[in-house]
TrEMBL record:
Domain of life: Bacteria
Protein name: Phosphate acyltransferase
Cross-referenced NCBIfam families: plsX
InterPro entries referenced in this protein's UniProt entry, alphabetically: FA_synthesis, Phospholipid_synth_PlsX-like
Function noted in UniProt: Catalyzes the reversible formation of acyl-phosphate (acyl-PO(4)) from acyl-[acyl-carrier-protein] (acyl-ACP). This enzyme utilizes acyl-ACP as fatty acyl donor, but not acyl-CoA.
Gene Ontology MF terms in the entry: phosphate:acyl-[acyl carrier protein] acyltransferase activity
SUPFAM superfamilies: Isocitrate/Isopropylmalate dehydrogenase-like
Enzyme Commission designation: 2.3.1.274
Record gene name: plsX
Species for this entry: Laspinema palackyanum D2a
Length: 355
């Protein structure tokens, strides 16, 4: 394998549709994204899935795929930490160790999200200056070609104000260097625009974000602001963020289904769909969560993408693309540098002999 290509470990056994859907997305990524993929899991099952695509002209780069054996899986019903300790050869654990040993630059998993986070903390650890990692998810907005990053969307149900402040710093860096926003606007999810609105956590966090020179804070963001395009980054605890994530995904699916049903009624409707097909395709790309691939686990000392348990091939492909973007833009190094700068800015000066 070429050393200049990004190497990404894939938990091939994680997810409702593993390993078939995982392998399909990984093969597409290997063919189109200039990445080498390391498929971690049951060799026989993975190899069987690969052979199904050997004659597929869409996947010419099967030689860019390597199988790494792992004969155990953390099931969705298992408690993450105990399962990882008990199943030392679990696919998510083996994949994470590849990143720890620098044999891969990133990991993608559609499996147990709690296990992915626990494995990342156990094997990769946190970046210096980070108390809690956060899952960042990218949402479309009403503004064409503009998205909003929301974090946390599920890693931390309860958050202290300083955790939310750290999320804001990480979100700012990701928005700037991966999403390409020159001057990102950061908001705090709340029930009102005024600084005094919300619970004690929200009020304290608001002041901390106002005082932090590394965060371009633009105030509170209400629920109606999430998809407005007025903010580039919105921070919240994982409880609220996960509710927003699941609601947005459900809403997108409902809108797509309603359009499909209504626009195909009768002969005129079917003719109209034919004419509108390019526009409908662009609409689907803007609202369908499949196009976004998943969320980046920000704050751990490695690039880790957590995607949907129900992921099909296209979602896995986009998750790998998300991982490659993070690698290409040196997200980890930038975050580490920024938190080192924050540490210097907030350091208490040593008392001098005169004082």
């Amino acid at each position: 394998m070429g050393s200049s290509r990004a190497r990404i470990a894939i938990d091939a056994m994680g997810g409702d549709n593993a390993p078939a859907a995982i392998v399909t997305g990984a093969l597409q990524a290997a063919s189109e994204l200039d990445v080498d993929v390391l498929l971690v899991g049951d060799p026989q099952k993975i190899d069987s899935c690969i052979k199904e695509h050997q004659k597929d002209a869409n996947f010419p780069n099967l030689n860019q795929v390597e199988i790494i054996p792992a004969d155990e899986v953390v099931e969705m019903h298992e408690e993450p930490l105990s399962a990882l300790k008990r199943k030392r050869n679990a696919s998510i654990r083996v994949a994470m160790e590849l990143v720890k040993k620098n044999q891969a630059q990133a990991i993608v998993s559609a499996g147990h999200s709690g296990a992915a986070m626990a494995a990342a903390l156990l094997h990769l650890g946190r970046l210096p200056g980070i108390d809690r990692p956060a899952i960042g998810a990218i949402f479309p907005t009403i503004v064409p070609n503009k998205s909003v990053l929301i974090l946390d969307v599920g890693a931390n149900v309860d958050c202290r104000p300083k955790f939310l402040e750290q999320f804001a710093v990480m979100g700012t860096i990701y928005s700037q260097y991966v999403l390409g926003v020159d001057e990102p606007k950061v908001g705090l999810l709340n029930i009102g625009e005024e600084p005094s609105k919300g619970n004690d956590q929200a009020v304290r966090t608001h002041q901390m974000l106002v005082d932090n020179p590394l965060v371009p804070f633009f105030g509170n963001a209400e629920g109606r602001d999430i998809l407005s395009g007025n903010f580039d980054v919105i921070v919240c605890d994982g409880f609220a963020g996960n509710v927003v994530l699941k609601f947005a995904e459900g809403l997108g699916e409902i809108v797509l289904n309603i359009l499909k049903e209504e626009l195909t009624q009768g002969i005129m409707g079917k003719m109209g769909v034919t004419l509108l097909k390019p526009s409908l395709k662009r609409f689907k790309q803007r609202v369908d969560h499949v196009e976004r691939g998943g969320g980046l686990l920000l704050g751990v000392a490695g690039i880790c993408i957590i995607t949907h348990g129900s992921s099909q091939g296209p979602t896995v492909y986009n998750a790998i693309r998300l991982a490659k973007d993070a690698i290409d833009h040196n997200v980890l190094d930038r975050m580490q540098s920024q938190f080192e700068l924050q540490k210097q800015l907030t350091a208490v000066p040593e008392p001098t002999a005169e004082s």
